[in-house]
Amino acid sequence: MKNNCVFCAIEAGEIPCFKIYEDDRVLAFLDINPFSKGHTLVIPKTHHKDMLEVPAELGTAVFAAIQKVAAAVLEATGAQGFNVMQNNRLAAGQTVFHIHWHIIPRFEGDGLDMWAQGKYADGAAMQQMAAKVASCL
Ligand code: AMP
């Protein structure tokens, strides 16, 4: 299997998929274990592990495909909204290490709420975090 990667194998036609959309740089197909019906994955055809490795210039093609496919998913499923999710690395729940974006159709009251939000102790703690991250740029 190319790159020992299931999504490269799908891109190469070695593993079947339920294809939704394809252009010269991007492929979209149904997720095999959907969070909701119509859950679709958008991948670049080239192999990159995650957001820190994908060339930024690919983003334009991916963004355009997400817009096109998400509109189609909304129309086909009758969903009232959608999430675009993208996991990076094991700790964040990434299981396939070929970057991909999930388009997840959402329905009022579907209960797919993901994370509880927290709070910083105070404004100083928040300022410290912002400064620390900015210093790493
Ligand atoms: P992630 O956890 O963000 O890495 O997501 C990987 C996704 O790929 C999961 O939602 C899986 O259900 C999906 N997946 C894995 N193998 C296949 C496959 N052969 N065809 C379609 N979706 C797949």
Shape: globular
Mean pLDDT: 96
Number of strands: 5
- The unreliable regions are none
Number of discrete helical segments: 3
Terminal CA distance reads: 37 Å
Bound molecules: adenosine monophosphate
Write down the Rg.
17 Å
**Sequence of secondary-structure elements:** HEEEHEEH
Summary tags:
five-stranded antiparallel sheet; 3 helices; binds adenosine monophosphate; alpha+beta
Kindly summarize this structure in a few lines.
By secondary structure, this protein is α+β, with helices and mostly antiparallel strands. Helix content is 28%, strand content 18%.
Give your account of this protein's structure.
- The mean pLDDT is 96.
- The protein contains three helices and five strands, in the order αβββαββα.
- The chain has a five-stranded antiparallel β-sheet, with helices on one face.
- Helix content is 28%, strand content 18%.
- Adenosine monophosphate is lined by residues 6, 15, 17, 31-33, 41, 87, 93-96.
- Residues 6, 15, 17, 31-33, 41, 87, 93-96 line the site of adenosine monophosphate.
Which SSEs are present, and which pair or pack?
Blueprint: H1 6-11, E1 19-22, E2 26-30, E3 40-44, H2 59-77, E4 81-85, E5 101-106, H3 123-135
Antiparallel strand pairs: 1-2, 2-3, 3-5, 4-5
Bound molecules: adenosine monophosphate.
